[in-house]
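Retry 2 of 3 after timeout on previous attempt. Resubmitting structure tokens to design endpoint.
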């Protein structure tokens, strides 16, 4: 929320007609129970009955307003919101959180409050808020949370490979799921590789990623008028993928100043072989 209202753009983004065929769960970030309530009303008006509460965001713009992971330092605040959730029996909630704001055991005060409300699941990122994304994930603390948590639990943090996924499954077999962020941006076929039970060849990955890119490009070309707007939207597709697509083609994609040069770089990638 900004100055008591939600940006029109954010509401338009979640409208059901813009998300057909997508199992979307809108997420909110709130600084107190009143803001939480207002956001729930707005989302409910657009037709959703399911909301995820963000208690994990480490961005200073949010945490300085007690939102996101900063909320974990105040069990009173979490309790206020939990009490408000109880009054909203028309909505189903889940929570995304970290171990704490400053200390990695702050969750011990928060989890009993969360046990007292019906949640679809908790997604836990085992860092503290002030760490942002620095340092290692704290697996020891994650496992303590895993043992203590009665709600369905989803792990999130630093999953990059099929081996990482296999290790999590082996070490925490009761997990409800594993959420991947940057790892999936770095290798967009990682979840497909997982589903098929094996890593794909470089060429199969390249061809699949190119098909994904083409769909995204086509969507952007229909939506945006100028080439420069389209470029602004499609270039970030490659942003995390430098490690496997190769430095040279990555540079050509990201540095292309015109649509023509960009498409030449896409073509260069489509003709590339792994060893080049
Ligand atoms: C640029 C950026 C934006 C993010 N925005 C959100 C967000 O809006 N909501 C959320 O729950 N997490 C958000 N996250 C956090 C991710 O969901 C995830 O917890 C984080 O990237 C760690 O997981 P990973 O190591 O798999 O990337 C964001 C992360 C990044 C890097």
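Retry 2 succeeded. Sequence:
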């Amino acid at each position: 929320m900004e100055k008591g209202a939600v940006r029109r753009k954010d509401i338009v983004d979640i409208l059901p007609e813009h998300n057909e065929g997508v199992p979307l769960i809108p997420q909110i970030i709130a600084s107190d129970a009143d803001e939480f309530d207002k956001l729930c009303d707005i989302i409910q008006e657009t037709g959703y009955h399911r909301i995820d509460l963000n208690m994990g965001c480490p961005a200073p713009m949010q945490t300085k307003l007690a939102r996101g992971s900063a909320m974990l330092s105040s069990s009173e605040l979490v309790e206020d919101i939990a009490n408000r959730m109880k009054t909203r029996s028309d909505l189903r909630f889940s929570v995304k959180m970290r171990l704490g704001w400053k200390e990695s055991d702050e969750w011990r005060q928060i989890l009993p409050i969360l046990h007292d409300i019906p949640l679809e699941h908790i997604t836990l990122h085992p860092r503290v808020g002030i760490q942002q994304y620095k340092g290692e994930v704290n697996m020891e603390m994650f496992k303590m949370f895993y043992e203590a948590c009665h709600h369905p639990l989803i792990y999130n943090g630093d999953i990059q490979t099929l081996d990482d996924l296999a290790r999590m499954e082996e070490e925490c077999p009761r997990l409800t799921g594993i959420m991947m962020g940057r790892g999936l941006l770095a290798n967009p076929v990682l979840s497909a590789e997982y589903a098929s039970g094996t890593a794909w060849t470089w060429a199969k990955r390249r061809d699949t990623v190119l098909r994904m890119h083409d769909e995204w490009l086509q969507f952007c070309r229909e939506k945006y008028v100028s080439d420069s707007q389209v470029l602004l939207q499609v270039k970030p597709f490659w942003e995390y993928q430098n490690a496997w697509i190769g430095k040279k083609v990555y540079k050509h994609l990201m540095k292309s100043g015109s649509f023509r040069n960009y498409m030449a770089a896409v073509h260069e990638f489509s003709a590339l072989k792994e060893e080049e």
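Attempt log closed. The chain has a mean pLDDT of 97.
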